[in-house]
Design goal:
Blueprint lengths: L2 H7 L4 H4 L6 H5 L3 H6 L1 H32 L6 H48 L5 H4 L2 H14 L2 H4 L3 H20 L1 H8 L2 H38 L1 H6 L3 H47 L8 H43 L25 E11 L2 E11 L4 E6 L5 H8 L7 E6 L2 E2 L5 H7 E4 L10 H6 L6 H11 L2 H7 E5 L2 E4 L11 H15 L3 E5 L7 H14 L4 E5 L3 H6 L2 E6 L2 E6 L1 H7 L2 H25 L1
Parallel strand pairs: 3-10, 3-11, 6-9, 9-10
Antiparallel strand pairs: 1-2, 1-4, 4-5, 7-8, 11-12
């Protein structure tokens, strides 16, 4: 097995595919709060429940009465009356069952909508550290099938399960009331059926759990391969990935066939015991006095009715098994810790939420590690005066990006403080903290929406204000190009494609600059893009970024010489610590670590520029 395939089949998500087992009752409690929201519909369905049981019970009795006492008299008034009553009961049973089923499905769909919404909100609330160890593709590939397995009939709170159980009990009593000997013969198969069904259900649940895991792996693998389509094509690795996918698909097929065999045996067993019960009733009628044709017909109908809810129970039990597996995974996600949205209770004097004007950022003695004993940041201290733009430089792995994410509250430092205007940022709710300090990542993520929608991101910005922002960062040509035309005088704005693929890297950076202006934070932490731009576009991007950062403090993780030269101050990181601070001129004059890094960057940019000119000439 290849290493890539192994990573898919035994990745970090394996810890999640086997969550801590909890009892079925504990898992069902996950649905209870959603059920209580629909109590009015539940009350209405409970009012219809007795009628849905009593009408079917009346039918065999009516048939027995017609066959034994009215059929022999030919076309008589009594026969017509009996048939009329039978048809009336059949019609009323249809109407009651129709309303009952509609209400239950309505309840189930409402509950599923609420559960989907809450689960989506839960995923959005996970701390960023969670996604360092979990595959986003696997989560996305797994959750829709898991939610689909929580069938609306199951999500309706088990009312159909209750109805089926009550129906079985009522029909059993009716069979014994009609004829104790024949009723006992018909019910004699129940213990054998219970043992068989219980054994099969345990086997099914284990197999279904494996099928769900393989489904998630297969979908995740396909999603990852499609996302990396260009890389796979360039490296001529299509056959390799096709073979790896075929291995997962083959394992999925084998396991699914096993699950299908158990499920087929499950339902075939129910039908077998139903037919056996009828045979036992016929056998039991031998030698019993007082048996009439109407009695035999009514008993046969009761036996058939008895196994209808039993088959329903079996169907729901199969659904229940699949839903329990899905609920195990969903319950595991719902119980994971989320990012705290509110600050801990502290002295009110320390909780003043800073606002404009821009204030001083003070970082003191900051330590942080992802794993105990492996520090990423060590004793980091920085002071950034209001309105200062500080460039941060360091080799890969020196802790720059981690420091940026701590400032924005994605991680909590192990030791030290981060203060804004004298107020501890850790004492401020995260929602407010991120209005103060905003992170612009190196790779600008764009949605398949218009330029305007990608800038707004749900914020209420007037069209006139948005137009001024677009003009300020130089996006007018991009917006004009992406307009597909007009419809009734209204402009049609097209999406930018998956991850904004129709835009260049420089145009994405312009959108990032526009987002800063719209979001309007007090301080920006900007992880500068590493990709090279042509000089004209690079100048436009730098001008847009300068415009967006006006009146704000900023930390810019620098990858370009121009950024270092124009920064108000520079902090140099090495192995998780700040080793130098000062202006560009001061640090160059010292001739220490910064000067060495700067010369390496200078040589790299000269080499890259020379290569670009050669490619252009060719």
């Amino acid at each position: 097995m290849s290493r890539i395939h192994a990573s898919v089949t035994a990745g970090p998500d394996d810890a999640e595919q086997k969550p801590a087992r909890r009892g079925d009752f504990s898992l069902v409690k996950l649905i209870v709060p959603y059920v209580l929201r629909e109590r009015r519909l539940y009350i209405l369905s409970l009012l219809l429940l007795p009628l849905s049981i009593l009408f079917p019970l009346a039918l065999p009795r009516i048939v027995k009465e017609i066959v034994d006492h009215r059929l022999h008299s030919g076309m008589s008034r009594e026969l017509v009356t009996g048939v009329g009553i039978l048809l009336a009961v059949v019609g009323m049973n249809f109407l009651v069952m129709y309303q009952f089923q509609c209400i239950l499905r309505n309840i189930g769909l409402r509950i599923m909508r609420a559960l989907r919404t809450d689960l989506y909100a839960r995923l959005q609330s996970f701390p960023i550290g969670y996604f360092r160890h979990e595959s986003r593709g696997r989560i996305v590939a797994r959750l829709p099938p898991d939610l689909d397995q929580i069938d609306p009939r199951f999500a309706s709170g088990g009312l159909m399960l209750v109805a089926d159980c009550l129906s079985v009990l009522a029909i059993g009593v009716a069979m014994l009331d009609l004829s104790v000997p024949l009723g006992l013969w018909g019910l004699s198969v129940i213990p054998f059926m219970a043992v068989t069904v219980t054994w099969l259900s345990h086997r099914m649940r284990s197999i279904i759990r494996i099928v769900r895991t393989l489904t998630a792996r297969m979908n995740s693998f396909a999603q990852e391969a499609l996302s990396a389509h260009d890389v796979i094509a360039v490296l001529a690795a299509r056959d390799h990935f096709r073979n790896d996918f075929d291995k997962i698909a083959s394992e999925f097929e084998t396991t699914t066939l096993t699950a299908n065999r158990y499920e087929s045996a499950f339902f075939a067993g129910i039908d077998f015991f139903g037919s056996l019960a009828v045979a036992m009733v016929v056998y039991g009628a031998i030698g019993v006095t007082g048996i009439t044709a109407g009695l035999m017909i009514a008993m046969a109908q009761y036996v058939q009715q008895f196994f209808v809810p039993l088959r329903g129970l079996a169907t729901r039990f199969s659904t229940f098994q699949q839903a329990m597996v899905a609920l195990e995974r969903i319950d595991h996600l719902m119980r994971l810790p989320v990012e705290p949205q509110e600050a801990p209770v502290v002295d009110s004097s320390a909780r003043g939420i800073p606002g404009k004007p821009v204030r001083k950022l003070q970082v003191k003695d900051l330590d942080f590690s992802y794993r105990a004993g492996t520090p990423v940041l060590k004793n980091v201290s920085l002071d950034i005066e209001p309105g200062i733009h500080m460039a941060m430089l360091g080799e890969t792995g020196s802790g720059k990006s981690t420091f940026a994410r701590i400032l924005c509250g994605f991680y909590r430092q192990d030791r030290g403080t981060v203060a804004w205007g004298g107020s501890d940022l850790d004492a401020i709710p995260l929602r407010e903290r991120r209005k103060i300090v905003s992170l612009v990542p190196q790779e600008v993520f764009l949605f398949d929406a218009s330029v305007e929608e990608n800038i707004r991101l749900g914020r209420d910005v007037a069209d006139a204000d948005l137009s001024r922002i677009i003009a300020a960062v130089g996006l007018e040509q991009v917006c004009a190009r992406e307009q597909a035309g007009t419809d009734g005088g209204a402009t049609i704005r097209t999406g930018l494609g998956e991850w904004g693929r129709r835009l260049s890297e420089g145009e994405k950076q312009l959108i990032a600059a526009a987002r800063i202006i719209v979001y309007n934070p007090d301080m920006v932490v900007l992880d500068e893009a590493t990709s090279s731009l042509d000089p004209l576009l690079d100048a436009s991007v730098r001008a847009a970024i300068r415009k967006a950062l006006e009146g704000r403090s900023a930390i810019i993780i620098a990858h370009r010489l121009s950024t270092l030269q124009s920064a108000d101050a520079i902090a140099v990181m090495h192995k998780g610590s700040v080793v130098e601070t000062g202006t560009h001129e001061e640090l160059i004059a010292r001739g220490e670590y910064y000067a060495k890094l700067y010369r390496l960057m200078e040589l790299s940019e000269v080499t890259a520029s020379h290569g670009a000119r050669e490619r252009t000439a060719a």
